[in-house]
Amino acid sequence: MEPEKDAATAVEAKKEVPMLDKQDDTKEMKGEEYAYLDATGFTSELFKIELRGLPKYYGIGELKKLLNVKMKLSTNKIKIMKPGSPFIFICFRNQEDREAAIKALDGYKWKGKALTAFEAKPAPDPLVRRRKEASTGEGEPLNIKRRTVEASATSLAYLTYEEQLKQKQSEMENVLQKFGKELWSSIPTLRSFVEKERQINGGLPCAFDSIRPSPMQDGYRNKCEFSIGKDASGVKRVGFRVGSYSNGFLEVESIAHLKHIPDCMKHTVALFEQFVQNSPFDVYSAETYQGYFRQLTVRMSHATGQVMVVVGVHPQTLSEEEKQTMKAAIVECLTSEPGKKAGISSIHFEVIQKRQQGQYTNPIEHLYGEPHIEDKILGLTFRISPAAFFQINTPAAEVLYQCAIDVAAPTKNTSILDICCGTGTIGLCFARHCKQVLGVDIVEQAIADAKHNAEKNGIENCKFFAGNSDDLIMSLIRHANILPDQQESLIAIVDPPRAGLHIRSITQLRNARGLDKLVYVSCSPQSAIKNWVDLMRPCSKQLRGEPFVAKKAIAVDLFPHTPHTELVILFEREPESNPQHLANSEIDCIDKPVGEL
């Protein structure tokens, strides 16, 4: 991990600093803690600014749009201290871009607040700083935060599975209680409603079913990203990192005894670890920025037994001939007899190095075998690309999706909006129960996979569109062409990333006429509470549609032996008394025609 990638490093620059002359800055940045500034060849830490005076409420998406679209600044990285922080750090690729940003931002008014922008010092290397503190007795010993790989990756494995479920049920109850408190404190008009629901539902703002267990508790993971490095003894390992860069240690430990990793992955890791130990190419060091092998991603299919391997490498200054030699050796290793026994059928090569401006993914090259693997959910076959999102516990994903179908209760007259649809897994599972499915996702490759999956399964009532759901929800609703007078209905299925939905998407969902039922699937329930509250806020200038009401919640355990849990919540609202055709819906948000998708 590079120092600029660790959010904790930005904490060092809490105070405003005066504009620095470049030569003075360079003189000041001497010593081990700043050696990385010369060692990396390039780091945007050299061209960083601090931006202060930000408004109390703003979204990171809004900020990025202001900086990169409206003001046309060439930002390289935006470092957020915490949501709603009044100051942030912004990095650029050169001094010219930094100076242009300071000139444009300093004194600029945004949301009624005058911004202040000035140069910021590079952050010290947290690894070096932490070790230095420990060695001089100024801080805690280095091993104070060291944990075993079992405690880091499977912190609940010491409990029986029944005890794990009880703990997770209790934790989700706490989340729902917090949701109720947020409703009570932020929406006074809902207090009588919240009190009534609490009396009915044992102190919770909605009904809460018992947690659904995972059908498979051990060896369930179908994807793992393994680090490549060295253990405490200096032996090259492929496994999980047990510390963190900011805590001062980078050791990688064996995953051989972890309960949630399947045997085929363990065999693949052991095979590649042996290869790395015998290879003339060294492992990558986040401390020195030298070395090559960085990461091993392994995906597997519970349905077919196929194993996909993606080898992540920093090419450094390797020639094309040396790269080809490395790739050939990787293929030879993974297609050996042990590789065949592990089920390896697809091999890819990923370049992991500092990304260029405008680059959001690492280039992946297919080296051997099939470019994809396939898995099954609820009887449907899904193609899985190297970078595609797919629920990591396939058997439990079937439970999750069936829960979503059960609470949504669609009919043959129902149209489904699949928001953040990914490769179409949820929407395609709904397809047999409804009239049509319309899905949207910002990742174009995911949409390509979704279309392939629909065709592969012979499903003709699903359409998928690439684009930002924040802008396209109303267009999809128009495309659905719902006719309420013919008993047709509309249901939204929302399965967002951990950060939840942007307020723009919430606004469009609230303002959509005819959308009277919404199923929210959350992989990070704590982070989703704000979304849930916004769905239930009274009508306002921005949220003109009638509020939703949380009716029922169900927890599903997709992650045995870990503290993580999925939560499904059904929201409903009363249908309008005299609904108009949805094409006549009035809305204050951007509405791009579906034909332009």
Automatic annotation (TrEMBL):
Protein's UniProt name: tRNA (uracil(54)-C(5))-methyltransferase
Protein family membership: Belongs to the class I-like SAM-binding methyltransferase superfamily. RNA M5U methyltransferase family.
E.C. designation(s): 2.1.1.35
Lineage: superkingdom: Eukaryota
Catalytic residues (positions): 523, 523 (nucleophile)
Annotated stretches, region: Disordered: 1-24
Residues spanning the membrane: none
GO molecular function: RNA binding; tRNA (uracil(54)-C5)-methyltransferase activity, S-adenosyl methionine-dependent
Chain positions recorded as S-adenosyl-L-methionine binding sites: 391, 441, 495
